[in-house]
Specification:
The protein is α+β, with helices and mostly antiparallel strands. It has one domain: Pnp Oxidase, Chain A. Strands 1, 2, 3, 4, 5, 6, 7 and 8 form an 8-stranded antiparallel β-sheet that branches. A hairpin with a 2-residue loop joins strand 2 and strand 3. It is globular and about 50 Å long. Pfam families: Pyridox_ox_2.
């Protein structure tokens, strides 16, 4: 990506460009909102959530409930962010594993990252996602 936000490696005329892992991480670091896919048997749930990143991990908070139960039964997750800016859109998908954070020092550290829910509801569970695969795409809109 050059200084103007354009992707230099995009073939002229191609409306879709694959992003490098570093470009995808840059978008993840800027994101505060994502969608999380969890699995419960044959059912897949998608949940909106607030996220932060630190290093090569993602974090979110949750109330006790279905999402936390799904994560405890099957820690394999997918997380997606997207955004649009002018005539370009981006999408990043993270596949990885989720783990509940139970260590009080680690919870305090993650709280210091500025992870804040949109709604003033009790979200006492802290979750860490360790990516196993990250893919990203940029789209030129209207072409």
């Amino acid at each position: 990506m050059n200084i103007a936000g354009e992707h230099e490696d995009a073939p002229q005329g191609s409306p879709i460009t694959e992003l490098s892992e570093e470009q995808s991480w840059e978008l993840l670091r800027q994101a505060r909102f994502a969608r999380l896919a969890t699995r419960d048997g044959d059912e897949i749930d998608i949940t909106p959530l607030n996220i932060v990143t630190d290093g090569e991990k993602l974090y979110f908070r949750s109330a006790k409930g279905t999402k936390v139960l799904h994560l405890q039964l099957n820690p394999n997750v997918a997380l997606e962010i997207d955004r649009t800016s002018g005539s370009e859109a981006h999408s990043v998908v993270v596949r990885g594993t989720a783990a509940m954070i139970t260590d009080s020092a680690e919870i305090k550290r993650v709280e210091g990252l500025g992870l804040r829910p949109w709604l003033n509801t009790e979200k006492i569970e802290f979750v860490e996602i360790t990516p196993t695969r990250i893919t990203g795409r940029a789209f030129r809109l209207g072409h």
